[in-house]
Design brief:
FAD/NAD(P)-binding domain; five-stranded parallel β-sheet; 30 strands
Length: about 600
C-alpha cells in the first residue's frame, strides 16, 4: 500500500512538474492590433521585411499608443521580444524608439536600437493569465516600427533566419501558406491604381465577374490620398471610363486628392460585378504549363488568406509581381543605346547609356507644409543631417526623387523610403531655422513610395523610344498619347554640390504616338495581361506613357480584351491573331453607359 501510494504521488508530481515546465509561447502580429491609435500599417515592403508592420508616422509628434488584447494561457513570467529595427543607425539617439506595455507594466528596455530587422529583447513581465492589454508607446513621432511581438515563459530568443521566422509564424498563428478560402471569377485584376480600376470597369461593363485585389484601404495608387500625384496624359478612346477615376490638375501633394478619391470609390463601388478586396496583398501566383491558375492574397492586418481562381489575370501591381511569381519574362534597368537605337545626341549617356546598368526612374515621397497661427517647435534630427547637410526646403514636389543604381527599387524599397524621410525631415528642420519660419509646420508627409519604374514585363512587342519619336502606327494600336517623353537623372550627377534626393528631367517633344495591344500581354505566360508601368517597353519607352491617364488607357484596353478572350475561349495572343478586327471595333466605339 505504501509503495502504491508513493508511486501515485510520484507520478502526479512528475505530471505537475511537466506541466509547470512546459514551454508556453505567443506570437502577436502587430499589424493585427485592434486599436492602432496613431500608428499606421505599412505593407509596401512585405517581400523585403517579411510582413506588414505598424509604424508611428507622427512627423515629429508622438502618436497615440497602439493597443490590443492578448490571451495568456496561464499566469506567470514571460520574456518579451519585438521584431523591429533602428532605421537610421548612427552616433545619436535612434529616431524610432518605442516602449512595450503589458497590462500595467512597462517593459524595461526601449525598442528601436538595433540596426537591421531582428528580434530585440524588451525584458520580462509578470501576467495574471487570461486577457491582457498590450500597447506600443511611441517615444519620438519619427517612424518607429514593430513587426511582431513574441512572448515566452522561457528565455529562448527567436532567430532572425527567414525560413525559421516563416515557420514560426505558421506554427504560432495557425495560418499556413495555402489559403483555406477559394473564390472563382472571370477575371482577377491585381493592383488598384488607375490602370487596375480602368481594367475592372471595362471588363465589368462587358459582363465579366471581376475581382480587384489592392493592398491599400483606398484606390488610385499614385493618385490616391496616400501619395497624391495628379493624373497626366490624354484619354484616348476611354474618356468616359477615365473621367470616373482621374484627378484635377492640383499641385502634387494637395489635399484636393480627397475629392477625386471619393469620386473614384463611388464609381467603383457602383458596379455589382466588381468585387473589391481592399487591404489584400497578393503574395503568390500558382502556375501550370505557362499559365496562371490562381493568385493567393493575404489581408494586410488580419492575415486572412484567399485563393483567387480565374481564366485570366491582369498585373497592375506596377512592380510586375504577378508576372514575376508566374515566371514571366521581364526586364529591369537601362538598356544600352545600341540595343534599340534609342540614343539622342542632346543628352548623350544621360539619355541612354553606352552599357546597360541597373538604374531606373526613381521613387518620390511627397510632403506639404503650412503656416500655423502660432509658433511651433520641431525636434532636432541629427540622424537626417548627413543626408541633407545645409539644404533646406518647405515642400516636396515631383523632383524629390531617389534615383540610384546602388539601391534596387523593389529589393531595397524600404531603404529608399527611409532615405527620403531623412531628406524631408532634415530639409524642413533647416528651413525652420530661418528667420520668420517659427510658425511653419508640417501638414502632411507620405510614408508610401510613389514609384515610376521597376520591373517591366516582356510582351510580344517591346515598346521603345523610336516608336514615339517616329509616331509609328500599329494595326493593334489601343493606346495613344501626346505627352512629351520625360526621363530623369539625379541632380548630383552633374553638380556634386546638389543633394542625392533631387532629380532633373529631360524632355523630348513627340507627336501623337501609339502603343500596340501586343505590349499589354505576357510573351510567355499565356493568360496574363499587364497594364501600367510594368507594361512591355524599354526604359526610355516608359518615359512618355508612364503617367496615369495613359496607363488607365492600357487598363481599359486589356479589360475589353479579357472580355473577348472569355467569349472566344482564346489566349491574349490568339485574340490578336484571330479576332483583332472585333477587338479594335470594340476599342474604337463608345462603350455602353451603365444602366
Amino acid at each position: 500500500m505504501y509503495f502504491n501510494n508513493l508511486f501515485k504521488w510520484t507520478t502526479l508530481m512528475s505530471v505537475l512538474l511537466l506541466i509547470a515546465g512546459c514551454h508556453k509561447e505567443l506570437f502577436l502580429e502587430c499589424e493585427s492590433f485592434e486599436n492602432r491609435g496613431g500608428w499606421v500599417v505599412d505593407p509596401q515592403f512585405v517581400e523585403q521585411v517579411g510582413s506588414p508592420y505598424l509604424m508611428a508616422h507622427g512627423m515629429g509628434i508622438v502618436v497615440e499608443n497602439a493597443s490590443t488584447t492578448l490571451e495568456f494561457p496561464s499566469r506567470g513570467t514571460y520574456h518579451v521580444w519585438a521584431r523591429t529595427t533602428d532605421w537610421a543607425p548612427g552616433p545619436w539617439d535612434p529616431p524610432g524608439q518605442f516602449n512595450i506595455i503589458v497590462g500595467d507594466e512597462k517593459l524595461p528596455k526601449t525598442m528601436g536600437h538595433y540596426k537591421g530587422w531582428g528580434w530585440n529583447y524588451a525584458g520580462k513581465v509578470s501576467v495574471q493569465g487570461g486577457t491582457t492589454v498590450v500597447e506600443l508607446e511611441d517615444l519620438t513621432g519619427f517612424n518607429g516600427r514593430c513587426d511582431a511581438l513574441y512572448f515566452s515563459n522561457k528565455y529562448r530568443a527567436p532567430t532572425n533566419q527567414r525560413d525559421y521566422l516563416q515557420d514560426m509564424r505558421m506554427r504560432l498563428t495557425g495560418k499556413g501558406e495555402v489559403p483555406e478560402q477559394e473564390l472563382e471569377f472571370d477575371l482577377v485584376v491585381v493592383g488598384g491604381g488607375i490602370a487596375g480600376c480602368a481594367a475592372s470597369i471595362a471588363a465589368a461593363e462587358q459582363g465579366l465577374n471581376v475581382a480587384l485585389i489592392h493592398d491599400r484601404p483606398v484606390l488610385g495608387g499614385n493618385a490616391s490620398t496616400e501619395i497624391r500625384v495628379h493624373t497626366l496624359g490624354i484619354y484616348g478612346h476611354f474618356e468616359r471610363i477615365l473621367k470616373m477615376l482621374d484627378t484635377e490638375h492640383y499641385p502634387n501633394g494637395s489635399p484636393m486628392a480627397y475629392a477625386d478619391e471619393k469620386k473614384r470609390h463611388q464609381h467603383m463601388e457602383s458596379y455589382e460585378n466588381i468585387h473589391l478586396f481592399l487591404n489584400y496583398r497578393a503574395y503568390d501566383a500558382l502556375t501550370g504549363e505557362q499559365k496562371i491558375i490562381a493568385v493567393d492574397a493575404r489581408h494586410t492586418a488580419s492575415g486572412e488568406q484567399i485563393r483567387f481562381v480565374a481564366p485570366y489575370f491582369i498585373d497592375c501591381t506596377g512592380d510586375g509581381w504577378i508576372g514575376y511569381w508566374a515566371g514571366a519574362e521581364f526586364s529591369y534597368g537601362r538598356e544600352p543605346a545600341s540595343e534599340y537605337g534609342e540614343s539622342w545626341e542632346e543628352y548623350g549617356e544621360l539619355w541612354s547609356p553606352e552599357k546597360e546598368d541597373r538604374q531606373v526612374l526613381g521613387a518620390s515621397v511627397l510632403w506639404r507644409t503650412y503656416y500655423s497661427d502660432s509658433a511651433c517647435e520641431f525636434p532636432e534630427v541629427p540622424w537626417a543631417m548627413p543626408v541633407v547637410d545645409d539644404y533646406s526646403a518647405n515642400q516636396g514636389t515631383w523632383n524629390w526623387e531617389m534615383i540610384s543604381e546602388r539601391w534596387h527599387q523593389i529589393d531595397q524599397g524600404e531603404q529608399i523610403r527611409d532615405h527620403m524621410l531623412k531628406a524631408i525631415y532634415g530639409s524642413f528642420f533647416n528651413e525652420k531655422k530661418k528667420e520668420g519660419m517659427e510658425a511653419l509646420k508640417l501638414e502632411w508627409v507620405s510614408y508610401l513610395l510613389g514609384k515610376r519604374e521597376s520591373r517591366r514585363l516582356v510582351g510580344d512587342y517591346i515598346y521603345t523610344f523610336n516608336d514615339m519619336r517616329e509616331s509609328r502606327s500599329f494595326p493593334d494600336a489601343v493606346v495613344e498619347e501626346i505627352r512629351e517623353v520625360d526621363v530623369h537623372y539625379p541632380q548630383n550627377l552633374m553638380d556634386e554640390s546638389k543633394p542625392d534626393f533631387l532629380a532633373e528631367a529631360m524632355y523630348y517633344k513627340a507627336e501623337r504616338y501609339y502603343i500596340p495591344y501586343r505590349s499589354l500581354y505576357s510573351k510567355n505566360i499565356s493568360n496574363l495581361f499587364m497594364a501600367g508601368r510594368c507594361f512591355s517597353c524599354s526604359h526610355i519607352g516608359l518615359g512618355g506613357p508612364r503617367v496615369m491617364r495613359t496607363t488607365g488607357q492600357m487598363g481599359a484596353a486589356v479589360g475589353y480584351a479579357a472580355s473577348l478572350c472569355l467569349q472566344h475561349g482564346s489566349t491574349p495572343r490568339q485574340l490578336y491573331e484571330s479576332h483583332l478586327d472585333q477587338y479594335m471595333k470594340l476599342i474604337r466605339t463608345s462603350t455602353p453607359e451603365k444602366e
